[in-house]
TrEMBL record:
Residues 19-130 form the FAD-binding FR-type domain. Pfam families: FAD_binding_9, SIP. It comes from Actinomadura montaniterrae. One of its GO terms (molecular function) is oxidoreductase activity. InterPro entries: FAD-bd_FR_type (IPR017927), FNR_nucleotide-bd (IPR039261), Riboflavin_synthase-like_b-brl (IPR017938), SIP_FAD-bd (IPR013113), SIP_fam (IPR039374), SIP_rossman_dom (IPR007037). This is Siderophore-interacting protein.
Length: 254
């Protein structure tokens, strides 16, 4: 993907845009478990990133009048959680799900190659670790990317619980502390409105006091898990943070 001009051609406009956005180049693209794909973006030193945050990748030049006039601005950004960031090397690593269909995000993930320029917004988001007696993670494959970064950041003495749903066991990402999580197999069933993940969370043997829950993935499923924690386990709503990443038929979540 090439959305940038040369530094000379960009001039003052380019310098202003560089204050707002981050530009890097793809260094590595390789398969990850399941329908995931690792994408390493280099040349981005000095990012202020907290594990759990995401970036918005530009599928098109959002500063171009053509993008707005064509009506494609709604398809110009796609949000991806950051798997890891190495400040020393300036490499940001994404792990992107290859969703079925031909949405802008899916097309980009399938076609991006080493050497391609990538423009993205600076890391953002409040879906990050909170001080709590323990941490609870619940979600499916798309949530695993965020969970990986957060689990890596959790202190070794911080208790961790969780349920992660995958289509098949081999589809699970190499999450830190994965032996402390419950892995549930979905098979050919849909991840949308998943009763499998909800049942797995119900079966978790959690401490009597609430911790802090991070629930991410398909929109209807995360709402069901939050309802369970609040209504059935008596957790305060403020102790359950949900992050809907996708849902069938929702434009902009592909």
């Amino acid at each position: 993907m090439t959305v940038a001009q040369s530094p000379t051609a960009r001039g003052v406009r380019g310098r202003l845009l560089d204050r707002m956005f981050v530009r890097g180049r793809v260094e590595d693209v390789r398969p990850a478990p399941g329908r995931m794909r690792w994408i390493g973006i280099g040349g981005v030193p000095g990012l202020d990133w907290t594990p759990g945050q995401h970036v918005r990748v530009h599928m098109a030049d959002i500063t171009s009048a053509r993008t707005w006039v064509s009506g494609k601005v709604r398809d110009a950004l796609r949000t991806y959680s950051v798997w890891d960031y190495d400040a020393a090397s300036g490499v940001l690593e994404l792990c992107v799900m290859d969703h079925e269909g031909a949405g802008p995000g899916a097309r980009w993930a399938r076609s991006v190659r080493p050497g391609d320029e990538v423009v993205f917004n600076k890391p953002e988001g409040s879906f990050v670790l909170r001080p709590a007696p323990y941490h609870l993670f619940a979600g499916e494959e798309t949530a695993s990317v965020t969970f990986g970064a957060m689990l890596r950041a959790a202190g070794p003495d911080e208790p961790v619980y969780g349920a992660v749903e995958v289509a098949e066991p081999e589809d699970g990402l190499p999450l830190p502390r994965r032996e402390e999580l419950v892995w549930c197999r979905r098979g050919d069933a849909s991840a949308a409105s998943s009763g499998i993940l909800l049942d797995a969370v119900r079966r978790l043997d959690l401490p009597d006091e609430p911790g802090f829950a991070y629930v991410a993935g398909e929109a209807r499923t995360v709402q069901a898990v939050r309802a369970h924690l609040v209504r059935e386990r008596g957790w305060p709503r403020r102790s359950v943070q949900v992050k809907p990443y996708w849902t069938p038929g929702r434009r902009g979540m592909d």
